[in-house]
Amino acid sequence: MGMTPKEKTPFLVAPLEKLINWARANSLWPAQFGLACCAIEMMTTASARYDLARFGAEVFRASPRQSDVMIVAGRVSQKMAPVLKTVYDQMLDPKWVIAMGDCSSTGGIYNNYAIVQGVDKLVPVDVYLAGCPPRPEALIDALIMLQKKIRNENVFAWEPGEKNL
Ligand code: SF4
């Protein structure tokens, strides 16, 4: 079967790959993982004013089994780290992570032993969002960046759990 030169996807299934990526990118269901002040902005992003339904990402889920994107909103304490990892592991593949704010991206102002210095020490991060806190518009921008990334993923070369640390 022929391959397209760039994606190494058999050309007969390339339109199917585009369709799958389009569907995944436009139906992101975020897992609620509000940990600190950034979570207030995340909750605001879900309000009617910002109309997240335009991007298919308005269905915030309380269960990791029903979620495919984790928005880590706030600093991650060492005590919370195993909980966060468990929730991530319970999400079904394919799944993605947005580190929302300086604290979840790098530890931010909490440069001490009690705080994980970046959630990427625990789970693979797809989009880092700077700010303290980032405004809802910035979170929407991060979602759009994630959608662009998903649209270019190689569906048929993907292995379950390949992004797990
Ligand atoms: S980045 Fe700023 S707003 Fe967000 S959790 Fe840290 S201190 Fe709070």
How many DSSP-defined strands? 4
Biggest sheet overview = 4 strands, parallel
Q: Which range best describes the helical content: under 10%, 10-25%, 25-40%, 40-55%, 55-70% or over 70%?
A: 25-40%
- From the alpha carbons, calculate the radius of gyration and give it in angstroms: 16 Å
| SS field, number of helical segments | 5
> Secondary-structure element order, as H and E?
HEHEHEHEH
Distance linking N and C termini: 33 Å
Summing up helix and strand content along with how strands pair, one would put the structural category as alpha/beta
Can you tell me the residue ranges where pLDDT is under 50 for at least 5 consecutive residues? none
* Strand neighbour order, sheet with most strands: 1-2-3-4
From the spread of the alpha carbons, the general shape counts as globular
**Mean pLDDT reading:** 88
Bound ligands = iron/sulfur cluster
Please state roughly what percent of the residues sit in beta strands, choosing from under 5%, 5-15%, 15-25%, 25-35%, 35-45% or over 45%. 5-15%
Descriptive notes:
By secondary structure, the protein is α/β, with parallel strands linked by helices. It has five helices and four strands, in the order αβαβαβαβα. A four-stranded parallel β-sheet has the order 1-2-3-4. Helix 4 links the parallel strand 3 and strand 4. Helix 2 crosses helix 5. The longest helix has 16 residues. It is globular. The N and C termini lie far apart (33 Å). The site of iron/sulfur cluster has 12 residues, from helix 4.
